[in-house]
Structure formats: structure tokens, C-alpha cells
UniProtKB/TrEMBL annotation, chain A:
Enzyme Commission code(s) on record: 4.7.1.1
Domain of life of the organism encoding this protein: Bacteria
One of the GO BP terms on file: organic phosphonate catabolic process
Gene Ontology MF terms: 4 iron, 4 sulfur cluster binding; alpha-D-ribose 1-methylphosphonate 5-phosphate C-P-lyase activity; metal ion binding
Source species of the chain: Shinella sumterensis
Lineage, uppermost ranks: Bacteria, Pseudomonadati, Pseudomonadota, Alphaproteobacteria, Hyphomicrobiales
Stored InterPro entries: PhnJ
Stated name of the protein: Alpha-D-ribose 1-methylphosphonate 5-phosphate C-P lyase
Length: 292, 258
């Protein structure tokens, strides 16, 4: 055994963490504003959460309890490997329980359970610029943010209604933060947008490839954009979760066989397990006692 | 017409390094007046137009504009936010190539509605009604409202661009060769439409063109440019029927008679 592979706490060197913390502080001071930062190479490919990992590494302390989710699940590749990464390089406690975590790094979901003061939610963001697909020039989009010219964002929503009869954007649904900056909430389903509004938890967004950090501080107004005659609506589901019977949660579709069989289950695995443990049952729930 | 000009240009010069774009151009534009800038390629017409429309910063000289509240404002002293607001509300800019002035990947309705949304209109039904109304006024049939401009012919694109610019009831329109690249019959209808709109809405307009027929049809007054200088200006009929400068005479006599 050699000790060659020793890392600084939480992988990044202290100067880098300092640089990222400065960007985070600025982002918190200007809610919704994208702060450029000197994103580092991380030992994972772009698109796998390099931004989120850097933000987490910069705010992580030895006493923190870390939870990592990927599309709501604690047990998918991305979540498992990032959790293992921080166990290895920072030796922090990890959990899958939303309630017990002090830092939650997430890819594309906000936990169903209401986050509380003192918790920090770190989002992995692929494309931080909400105007990007409408205006390809970075110089122009930055100017549009600076001058608060957001008419173009509504052009996108207009197109949605003209083509589909309703606002068909279901994820990365643009929001206005504290009445000023229009922000991309990362590709979370629009189901989660209302949870960002006046959240007690601090929300940090890291985009590694695009080198941007932005933030929504606790108790900040987050309003989803819409039209007066086509107000913002979240997705609804016909059936409750097949495992825990939960309603009012975001469900994933799971294909069961090749004969068209499918079920809908909570995308937030921790929430689902917690409910099952408390005795809630959906119609496809695996019943331990009956099996025995 | 009121007794104050809507736009005052004084000694506009633009140099590209050692080359001259335009030199010492001064004029007043009055409300409801259509001014044509004519001249051959490279004479500085478009440079002048861009300087007036704040798309280019003139090397020297000033452009003043009378705002809706009646105040004359120096455009170069305005903040960028004010200038951009002016450009999408009180002004219009019609490009020679419609692809430069349109969003080719969004529908015709959204193209027309964009300015409305930019000034805060948030009612889908109203935006769509206004867009439909404007498409009708520029003779684009209502069932094309959800088509992208890609699917439009050159003439339709140009008319769509005009509708997009006029939807916020601007007071001043800049046009850079609005009929360039269109065939003659389409040109004629577009000119007819423009003439009607300018008259109905009481627009002021500055039109850059190398086509003297366009200038004669649309404009009240004409400025002839050569090598960056205005060599002759006056009422359109006077300049075209009785050109004084040798170059203008050449220009007028070069029109192909059919």
C-alpha cells in the first residue's frame, strides 16, 4: 500500500474552493444571476454533474451529511458514484434520507419532502442559460439579462401554445427570481417549480461545462412564467404511486413486460420507501408478510 | 405636420480606418415624411442608415430624435437600455434580407407578437388576435399564422417583416432596400402596400434604395449620395425630373426604358 493517492479534503484544492465559494456568495447576493467561475476538470465527464460536484466540494464540511439523487433516486449510477466519490475524498457521512441530509446534490428533481432551514440543495445544470435555444449568442443573452429584456422567453411559450394548444414545456420551465432575473431551474420537471418558491433551504446551481454558478437564497420569490389566459400548471397523474399509494407526487413510468404492462411509481425513492415503511400500500406493493 | 422635425442629423461622418463610409451628412426629417437615400453600391447609403438607426456609432456628428413626449434627445447620449427600447417600440428596421429581421425558427404569429411580449403584453389571446390582424393587413392569409417564415416566399417574408415592425405603432421606420431581390410584380404589390401603410399610419420613413422607381413611388424627398457625400437633395419629383448634378443626371438617364 502506498499513500500516493491522497487527496485534499473534498478533492479540490483550497484555492479552488475559495474561488468557487466567492462565486457562490455573489450568486446568493444576486438571486438568479449566472456568475461565471473557473470550472475545473473533474474526474468525470461533462454532463455527469461536474458543476454540482464542484459546488458540493466547495461547501462540504466534515460534519455534513450528504445525500445524492439522480432523477429522484438514490440508487442510480450517477447518484451512487458521486456519493462514493465524496465518501472517499472527504470521508463524510452519507444518507439516503432527505430529512437527515444537510447537503443534497440532485440531478433533475427536488425531493418530495419539504426542505427545511439549514439544508442546501445543489443542482447539476447542463445548460444554465434559459434564453440559449432562442438566442445563440452569449454576448446577446448577457445583454438581455442586464437590460431585463425577457420578451423572447414568452415567444417560446407562445410557440408552445400555438403548436400544442397549451404550454407544452414540461421541464426546465423558466422562472423569474425575485422579480428580476429569468432563470433555468435545470431540467427539473415543472412539477417541482412551486417547491422552489419561498423555500426554506438554500438552492445552489452548478454548471461545470458552461462554467456558471447561480443561486436561489432561502425565502426567495420564484415565479414560473406564463400567460394571463394560459396560467402555469403542474403535471397531474391519473393514478397514485403503485408501491406506496402516494398522490400529489411526481411519478416515473416503469415498463414491466413486453406486453404493454407498466406501472407508475414515485420518482423520489426515499419518499416512497419512507411511506411504505409507515404502512402505506399501493396496488402493486410487494407484501412481505404475504410472501412469507 | 408639426413644426419640429422628428429626426435631426448634423454632420454625420463615419470612417472605417482610412476609408470613408459617409461624410458630413446633415438633414431634418419631418413627421409623416418619407425620405429616400439613393446612390450606387458603395456610396455610403447603408452606412448612413445604420448611423441614424444607432446600429453603428458615427465617428462624428449627432443624431437627435423627438421622443413621444416631445423632447429632442441625442441618440448617442442615451443609455443602451433606452436605445434598445426605442428600437423595439417607436422605431422599425426593415432589412433587405428578411432572414436578418425575422426569427426564422418561430412561427409568423410569434414573429409579429414578439415586440408586444417585449413591452409586457401577457395575454395569449390578445397577442394572437393582434398578430392575425397585422398579417391580414400585409396580405398574408390567416391560416399561415402558425407557419414558420422558412415556409414563406421572399415577398411574404418581406411583408411579414414589415408587420413585425409595425405592430407596436412605431413613428419612424428605417428600410434598407426593402424591395431588393424580389421580382417585379411582387415589388409592385409590396410598394403599394408600403405606400398605403405609410399614409394610413402617418409614418416617417427613411428608405435606402438604389432603385429610383422605388424612390419616386414612396418618397417625398430624396438625397443622392456618391462617395459618402450627399451631392444633391430636394423634392423627389424635382430631383428626378430636373436633376442638377452631373452624377444625378447620369443616374436618372441610366434607368432602362422598356
Amino acid at each position: 500500500m502506498s499513500d500516493l493517492a491522497t487527496y485534499n479534503f473534498a478533492y479540490l484544492d483550497e484555492q479552488t474552493k475559495r474561488m468557487i465559494r466567492r462565486a457562490i456568495l455573489k450568486a446568493i447576493a444576486i438571486p438568479g444571476y449566472q456568475v461565471p467561475f473557473a470550472s475545473r476538470e473533474m474526474p468525470m465527464p461533462y454532463g455527469w454533474g461536474t458543476g454540482g460536484v464542484q459546488v458540493t466540494a466547495a461547501i462540504l464540511g466534515p460534519d455534513d451529511v450528504l445525500k445524492v439523487i439522480d432523477q429522484g433516486a438514490d440508487d442510480t449510477t450517477n447518484a451512487v458514484s458521486i456519493r462514493a466519490f465524496f465518501q472517499k475524498v472527504a470521508n463524510v457521512a452519507v444518507t439516503t434520507r432527505t430529512r437527515e441530509a444537510s447537503i443534497i446534490q440532485t440531478r433533475h428533481r427536488i425531493p418530495e419532502e419539504k426542505l427545511t432551514a439549514g439544508q442546501t440543495l445543489v443542482y447539476q445544470v447542463p445548460i444554465p442559460e434559459p434564453l440559449r435555444f432562442l438566442e445563440p449568442r452569449e454576448t446577446e443573452t448577457r445583454k438581455m439579462h442586464a437590460l431585463e429584456e425577457y420578451g423572447l422567453m414568452h415567444v417560446k411559450l407562445y410557440e408552445d401554445i400555438a403548436r400544442n394548444g397549451h404550454i407544452a414545456t414540461t421541464y426546465a420551465y423558466p422562472v423569474k427570481v425575485e422579480g428580476r432575473y429569468v432563470m433555468d431551474p435545470s431540467p427539473t420537471p415543472k412539477f417541482d417549480n412551486p417547491k422552489m418558491h419561498m423555500s426554506e433551504a438554500l438552492q445552489l446551481f452548478g454548471a461545470g461545462r458552461e462554467k456558471r454558478i447561480y443561486a436561489v437564497p432561502p425565502h426567495t420569490e420564484v415565479v414560473s412564467l406564463d400567460f394571463e389566459d394560459h396560467p402555469f400548471e403542474i403535471q397531474t397523474f391519473d393514478k397514485p404511486c403503485a408501491l406506496c399509494g402516494a398522490e400529489d407526487v411526481y411519478l416515473d413510468e416503469v415498463v414491466l413486460d413486453d406486453k404493454g404492462g407498466r406501472m407508475f411509481v414515485c420518482s423520489d425513492t426515499d419518499h416512497c420507501e419512507d411511506r411504505c415503511a409507515r404502512g402505506h400500500r399501493g396496488h402493486l406493493a410487494y407484501d412481505k408478510e404475504a410472501a412469507e | 405636420m408639426t413644426d419640429t422635425p422628428i429626426l435631426k442629423a448634423r454632420d454625420i461622418s463615419k470612417f472605417y480606418g482610412a476609408r470613408t463610409g459617409c461624410r458630413n451628412v446633415s438633414f431634418d426629417l419631418w413627421p409623416g415624411e418619407v425620405l429616400a437615400i439613393v446612390g450606387e453600391s458603395g456610396s455610403g447609403k447603408t452606412t448612413l442608415l445604420n448611423c441614424l438607426a444607432t446600429r453603428l456609432m458615427p465617428t462624428s456628428g449627432s443624431v437627435e430624435y423627438r421622443m413621444r413626449d416631445g423632447q429632442m434627445r441625442d441618440l448617442s447620449r442615451m443609455s443602451e437600455a433606452e436605445r434598445r427600447f426605442l428600437m423595439r417600440t417607436d422605431w422599425g428596421f426593415v432589412h433587405q434580407n428578411p432572414a436578418d429581421g425575422l426569427r426564422m425558427a418561430v412561427s409568423a404569429g410569434a414573429n409579429v407578437g414578439e415586440r408586444l411580449m417585449a413591452v409586457g403584453e401577457r395575454h395569449y389571446g390578445n397577442i394572437r388576435d393582434t398578430a392575425g390582424d397585422w398579417l391580414r393587413r400585409v396580405e398574408i392569409s390567416g391560416d399561415r399564422i402558425d407557419d414558420q417564415p422558412r415556409a414563406f416566399s421572399g415577398g411574404m417574408r418581406q411583408r411579414l417583416q414589415i408587420a413585425r415592425n409595425l405592430v407596436t405603432s412605431p413613428r419612424l421606420i428605417f428600410m434598407d432596400e426593402p424591395t431588393g431581390g424580389l421580382d417585379v410584380s411582387v415589388q409592385a404589390r409590396l410598394l403599394d402596400l408600403l405606400r398605403g401603410l405609410v399614409q394610413d399610419l402617418g409614418l416617417s420613413a427613411i428608405i435606402v434604395t438604389h432603385d429610383l422607381a422605388v424612390a419616386r413611388l414612396l418618397s417625398h424627398r430624396i438625397m443622392v449620395m456618391k462617395d459618402g457625400l450627399v451631392i444633391e437633395q430636394g423634392l423627389t419629383d424635382r430631383v428626378l425630373d430636373d436633376p442638377r448634378e452631373a452624377y444625378t443626371q447620369l443616374l436618372v438617364s441610366s434607368i432602362l426604358q422598356v
